[in-house]
Design goal:
alpha/beta; globular
Length: 285
């Protein structure tokens, strides 16, 4: 089996079509005032926007709160972060280009070497998305994301393609289908990053853009169930499942046990693909 793979299709024309999937739970006002408002500001067509809610009761609530025309579709899914992520993967056909967004995005920044803080408001979200999927098609790395910290002093031009954490607040994927199945609620974005890295041999992370959001702080959503103990157990389970691709990190200011992703395998053992993924046992908490 080849080591680092690429599905470069040469000069084949790449479709620019995509959808935006937003899972949301007990955050109707947050979704209305933040993510949907941001998408409207960036003139993303509401017909592209799919809101996924946990049950019929939540659907009724969201329809009463959200502004008509601010989204195109509302889908009743299932409760639980891992469950809804897997539901979304299965809802859309394999090969569909999906932008996944959290419901509490307040905006985006982009890197600027001439700005005082090296950051300015993102000028075009549509252009960022199209760039992400274009580079994804060229490299064959189906998962892509942006820098996790909205701080221009840490951002820079260009992108990386080695093993990096693709933050769950905003990410794009060319749908691989059920082979992408996450099994934990906390740190499901770390698990997704690991799965797609093992499958494709790389993930793309653009260093020149970042989402503005309040990690761990917004009421509702995952905060309804998240505890430090469960986050710790998820980190430990991920490390146990992928010991050669992760390191535990207990020094984060958030107070949560975190992971660092790094491919620690010897070069001659860096192999990728579905058969390699089968060698890893998916974590459960």
């Amino acid at each position: 089996m080849a080591t680092r793979r690429s599905r470069n299709k040469g000069t084949r024309k790449i479709s620019s079509d995509y959808v935006v999937a937003i899972p949301s739970y007990k955050r109707a006002e947050t979704l209305r005032d933040k993510t949907l408002s941001v998408l409207a500001e960036y003139k993303i067509s509401s017909s592209k926007i799919y809101v996924f809610v946990a049950d019929k009761e939540q659907e009724d609530l969201y329809r009463s709160v959200l502004k008509p025309g601010s989204y195109g579709h509302m889908i009743v899914g299932v409760p639980g972060m891992a469950n809804i992520r897997n539901f979304i993967t299965r809802y859309f056909p394999v090969g569909k280009r999906i932008i996944n967004m959290d419901d509490d995005i307040k905006g985006f920044l982009e890197f600027s070497s001439t700005a005082r803080r090296h950051e300015i408001p993102l000028r075009s979200l549509d252009s960022l998305i199209k760039k992400g999927f274009s580079e994804s098609a060229k490299t064959g790395f189906r998962l892509w994301g942006i820098y996790p910290v909205a701080n221009g002093f840490f951002m820079k031009e260009g992108a990386t393609s080695d093993l990096k954490y693709i933050i769950g607040a905003f990410w794009g994927i060319t749908n691989p289908g059920p082979i992408l199945t996450v099994t934990i609620d906390d740190k499901e974005d770390y698990l997704r990053s690991l799965i797609m890295y093992v499958l494709d041999g790389g993930v793309l992370r653009f260093r020149d853009a970042a989402p503005i959001t309040a990690y761990y702080k917004e009421a509702g959503g995952m905060q309804e169930e998240r505890t430090k103990n469960r986050v710790t157990k998820s980190a430990e389970a991920l490390h146990a499942a992928f010991p050669d691709l992760t390191k535990l990190n207990a020094t984060k200011k958030s107070g949560y046990l975190e992971l660092r992703l790094r491919d620690g395998r010897d070069d001659d053992k860096k192999k990728f693909g579905p058969d390699i993924l089968k060698e890893y046992k998916m974590p459960k908490v």
